Amino acid sequence: MTIRPELLKNIRTTEPYVPGEQPQEKVIKLNTNENPYPPAPGVEKVLRTMDTDRFRLYPDPTAGQLVHALAEFYGVDDSRVFVGVGSDDVLSMCFLTFFNSEKPVLFPDITYSFYKVWAQLYRIPYICPGLDEEFRIVREDYYQENGGIIFPNPNAPTAIYEELDFVEDILRHNPSSIVIVDEAYVDFAGKSAMELISEYDNLIVVQTFSKARSMAGMRIGYAVSNPELIRCLNDVKYSFNSYTMNQTAIRCGVEAVKDKEYFEAGVRKIVETREWAKKELAELGFVFPDSKANFIFARHPEYDAGVLFRALKENKIYVRHWDGGRIGQYLRITVGTPEEMKTLFDFLSEYMKK
Length: 354
Ligand code: PMP
Hints:
Its cofactor is pyridoxal 5'-phosphate. The protein is α/β, with parallel strands linked by helices. The chain has two domains: about 20-40 and about 260-350, Aspartate Aminotransferase, domain 1 (Alpha-Beta Complex); about 40-260, 3-Layer(aba) Sandwich (Aspartate Aminotransferase, domain 2). It has helices at about 5-10, 40-50, 65-75, 85-100, 115-120, 165-175, 225-240, 245-260, 260-285, 305-315, 340-354, and strands spanning about 30, 80-85, 105, 125, 150, 180, 205-210, 220-225, 295-300, 315-320, 330-335. The strands form four sheets. A five-stranded mixed β-sheet has the order 2-8-7-6-5, with helices on both faces. The protein has a two-stranded parallel sheet with strand order 1-10. It has a two-stranded parallel sheet with strand order 3-4. The structure holds 4'-deoxy-4'-aminopyridoxal-5'-phosphate. 4'-deoxy-4'-aminopyridoxal-5'-phosphate binds near residues 208 and 221.
């Protein structure tokens, strides 16, 4: 059945974001940049002692315990922290709150594809400056008039990290715009722009528990900025849905933040495996920009990416591939455990012998 035109004209139709596959069977899952290791041990303990009687009650709408734990972790006041249901929720609220101009919002043409979806959904005009030949963001493109700026650092799916002088340059050229730095992968990379928040009143830094903290399934993300912008964000959030974060996620999040040692050790393991994986991939003939994330964006000059993607999938090794365009010949490979990566490399070397 099709929707009649007179009904359709009043409906907000949109082309949704397409998340990576979540197969229910057991596969080597290197397709959605999850962490292959479990979350901090304290998280399991919390789950075992959850008082289900509390489930009768609404959760704390401010998610105060989690906000406080994060504020302590970064050594800032609670008023500088906003939490949400994954950074997707936080970013979506940021688009709604801060990108409210007739002028176009700027984000790279090759980047997290959700940005375009939110811009379209909220009817925010946008321009997507192209990455250069090496897939780098061209800073001068962000000197033009705009209604806000957002980019991930490291960028996705390229995995390229830009140093903080790059972020500062963009901030300095755009004192009248809100600049959002999406740091979903920064723990695997280098310095966070978090250290710039007291210096630039137009900066918002967004991070997630989904990658370095191994908690994609719990859906926790957060933004750090100045108290005034955080208040604007909360005002919009409370006008949308007061109880976004459930009690379980709040408690688990607090436990994860407390265990700094486990977090740092986990990051080190992924970075080590990534550096080894780069050598293996290069030996197999792959080329890729230098990754500073928990994934590698690689192309093989002699093999079609779509064909490779399907061959891997048939053998229960899932990576990510986007059809067509400038990235159509690339595979985005999440860094898994050394064992998972070895299975991938063994498969590829056999495949390439044929
Ligand atoms: N930003 C970027 C750049 C991402 O790749 C992702 C993961 N898909 C997210 C944000 C959202 O992550 P989450 O909602 O799990 O925090």
